[in-house]
């Protein structure tokens, strides 16, 4: 708990200081990074800690986005819009999760893909919410006492929800529920033998991740002012999947790094060549083939080489540690 608070405070200080050292264009991109990082962390939870490989996580993101876009025609308060996005996404995750988690591996993957494709076709063909043209809105985050209109205020707004999401995820992962979920991923048979209801753990994590993805979708509308059926597409589902793999699967901060790397490379490479997607695809292939731990693991390896640990001797019981001096003799 103490470590979670310290890490969260460091993130908060970093986000508060960033606008003073970066350009307005980078600030604009970082706002998107923070929002997509919440989305990526939610997928990273069920994949890296629950072993649920999903290609339908964009369904919850899209539901959250459309919820805010539609309701913003009637209300502007974030205290109604964002909770509604979280709740509706969570309910949909519960309904679909009860079906999806009954399956494993490729079958779970295909069911989640089929669900999000049905939503894609539904919103694309429905004229009620704009159809294929999408649905525009002019809503701004309304805190009740003020409306956030500047890019800087929107950055801090997204940053606040990112910090909150990261802190809650750390608590979830370190809780008995989170440890039980990881145990299910590592050895489901043993957890069943110990009397654990493994489906219950998976459904709770799936619903929690769905609600968090819905929050990210709602925040996304405040930035883009536009909801499109493309939010449910395979492209969006694979984009967030790539973010998780690039950053590092099985970690909380890995997806954050992956979201940042993906968005910055996409923006900068696309200014140099129209084939930016090919370069991103090659980068993804290289990481999957040669460093499945992602960028975060690569940074950890480099850090260990730059700061090698002291040579230690441990007795057979692991109780005695003798530090060696430079001559190799025990002190």
Characterise the protein shown here.
It is a single chain. The protein has 331 residues and is mainly α. The chain has a domain at 2-232. The protein contains 13 helices and four strands. The protein has helices at residues 2-17, 24-49, 58-71, 78-100, 105-125, 151-174, 176-186, 188-193, 198-224, 234-247, 254-269, 276-290, 294-306, and strands at 135-136, 226-227, 312-314, 321-323. The strands form two sheets. It has a two-stranded antiparallel sheet. Strands 3-4 form a two-stranded antiparallel sheet. β3 (312-314) and β4 (321-323) form a beta hairpin. α1 (2-17) packs antiparallel against α6. The longest helix is centred in the middle third of the chain and has 27 residues, at 198-224. Residues 310-331 have low confidence and may be disordered.
Topology:
Elements: H1 2-17, H2 24-49, H3 58-71, H4 78-100, H5 105-125, E1 135-136, H6 151-174, H7 176-186, H8 188-193, H9 198-224, E2 226-227, H10 234-247, H11 254-269, H12 276-290, H13 294-306, E3 312-314, E4 321-323
Antiparallel strand pairs: 1-2, 3-4
Helix pairs in contact: 1-6, 2-6, 2-9, 2-10, 2-11, 3-4, 3-9, 4-9, 6-7, 7-9, 10-11, 10-13, 11-12
**Overall mean confidence score, pLDDT:** 85
Based on secondary structure, the structural category is mainly alpha
Largest sheet descriptor: 2 strands, antiparallel
General form: globular
Q: Uncertain segments of ≥5 residues (pLDDT<50)?
A: 310-331
Order of helices and strands: HHHHHEHHHHEHHHHEE
- Could you tell me how far the N terminus lies from the C terminus, measured between alpha carbons in angstroms? 37 Å
Looking across the biggest beta sheet, what order are the strands in? 1-2
What is the β-strand count? 4
Into which percentage range does the β-strand content fall? under 5%
- The percent of residues in helical segments reads 55-70%
- The assembly state of the depicted protein chains is single chain
Number of DSSP helical runs: 13
Rg, Cα atoms, Å: 22 Å
């Amino acid at each position: 708990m103490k470590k979670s608070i310290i890490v969260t405070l460091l993130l908060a200080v970093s986000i508060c200081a960033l606008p003073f050292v970066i350009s307005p264009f980078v600030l604009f991109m970082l706002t998107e990074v923070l929002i997509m990082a919440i989305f990526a962390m939610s997928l990273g939870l069920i994949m890296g800690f629950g072993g649920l490989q999903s290609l339908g996580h964009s369904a919850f993101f899209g539901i959250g986005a459309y919820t805010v876009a539609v309701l913003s025609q009637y209300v502007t308060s974030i205290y109604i819009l964002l909770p509604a996005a979280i709740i509706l996404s969570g309910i949909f995750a519960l309904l679909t999760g009860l079906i999806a988690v009954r399956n494993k591996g490729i079958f779970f993957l295909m069911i989640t893909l089929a669900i999000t494709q049905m939503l894609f076709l539904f919103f694309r063909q429905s004229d009620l919410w704009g159809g294929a043209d999408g649905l525009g809105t002019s809503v701004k985050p309304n805190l009740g006492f003020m409306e956030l209109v500047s890019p800087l205020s929107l950055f801090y707004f997204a940053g606040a929800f990112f910090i909150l999401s990261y802190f809650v995820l750390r608590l979830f992962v370190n809780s008995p529920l989170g440890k039980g979920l990881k145990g299910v991923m590592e050895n489901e048979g043993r957890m069943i033998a110990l009397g654990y209801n493994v489906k219950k753990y998976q459904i709770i994590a799936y619903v929690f991740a769905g609600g968090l993805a819905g929050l990210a979708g709602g925040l996304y509308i405040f930035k883009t002012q536009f909801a499109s059926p493309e939010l449910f597409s395979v492209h969006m589902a694979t984009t967030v999947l790539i973010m998780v793999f690039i950053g590092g699967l099985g970690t909380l901060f890995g997806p954050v790094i992956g979201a940042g790397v993906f968005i910055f490379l996409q923006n900068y490479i696309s200014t140099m060549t129209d084939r930016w997607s090919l370069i991103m695809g090659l980068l993804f292939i290289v990481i999957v083939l040669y460093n499945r731990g992602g960028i975060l693991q690569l940074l950890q390896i480099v850090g260990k080489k730059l700061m090698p640990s002291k040579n230690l001797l441990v007795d057979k019981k692991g109780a005695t540690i003798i530090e060696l001096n430079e001559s190799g003799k025990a002190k």
